[in-house]
Structures are given as C-alpha cells and as structure tokens.
C-alpha cells in the first residue's frame, strides 16, 4: 500500500492496530507514509451482564486475540449463562473467521 499496489499511488497514511508484524511494517515505512501510531499487541477486556449478545462478545474477543499469543482477550461477566454461551460461541467464531494464507490454519 505504501508503494501504490492498488491504485498506482502510495497511500497517505497507514492506520491499523495489529501484531508485532504490523508494528514492524509501520516502523519500516515511517517517513515514507504517515502512520497513526506505533502499536504492538492489543488486549481486550469485556465486562458484560446478562443483556449482552454472546455473538458480539465472542466476536470482539476473537477479533483481538487473533493478533497473537501476546494479545489477551478476557471476559468478566455477572452472568454465568452469558459466560458459558460466549465460551461455546468462540470456537464457532474462529471457524467462521476468514483464513489468511499462512496466518490461520
């Protein structure tokens, strides 16, 4: 993208959180294109009660955990029922996640 892969023109700014590889790519490109922030692994903490949607909670947890082993995803809930539904939903979300060549197997 910094070289204009899609449009023939470089992008103005790269914006994305991600894993250590995203952080390294931004470091390498710093000065050639704008970057929003040097970020490393991310973490997420969801605090939810019985009114939360298990599908959404599971998707948020998986979306952050996919950055790597050093990106923890934690759910704290006042509802055991919700927590169990989310735990059951996580494998379904992972299975439905689009596989990227060499990243998810």
Automatic annotation (TrEMBL):
Any single biological process term in GO: L-histidine biosynthetic process
Listed InterPro entries: Ald_DH/histidinol_DH (IPR016161), Hstdl_DH (IPR012131)
Keywords assigned: Metal-binding, Oxidoreductase, Zinc
GO cellular component: cytosol
Residues that span the membrane, as ranges: none
Pfam families attached to this UniProt entry: Histidinol_dh
Keyword Metal-binding tagged: yes
Entry keyword annotation includes Zinc: yes
UniProt GO MF annotations: histidinol dehydrogenase activity; metal ion binding; NAD binding
Gene3D superfamilies, alphabetized: Nitrogenase molybdenum iron protein domain (3.40.50.1980)
PANTHER family (UniProt xref): HISTIDINOL DEHYDROGENASE, HISTIDINOL DEHYDROGENASE HDH
Family according to the record: Belongs to the histidinol dehydrogenase family.
Name this protein carries in UniProt: Histidinol dehydrogenase
């Amino acid at each position: 993208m910094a070289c204009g892969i899609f449009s023939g023109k470089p992008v103005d700014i790269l914006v994305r959180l991600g894993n250590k590889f995203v952080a390294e790519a931004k470091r390498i490109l710093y000065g050639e294109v704008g970057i929003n922030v040097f970020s490393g692994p991310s973490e997420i903490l969801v605090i939810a009660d019985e009114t939360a949607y298990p599908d959404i909670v599971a998707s948020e947890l998986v979306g952050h955990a996919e950055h790597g082993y050093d990106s923890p995803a934690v759910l704290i809930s006042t509802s055991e029922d919700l927590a169990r539904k989310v735990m059951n939903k996580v494998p379904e979300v992972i299975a439905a996640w689009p596989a990227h060549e060499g990243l998810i197997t």
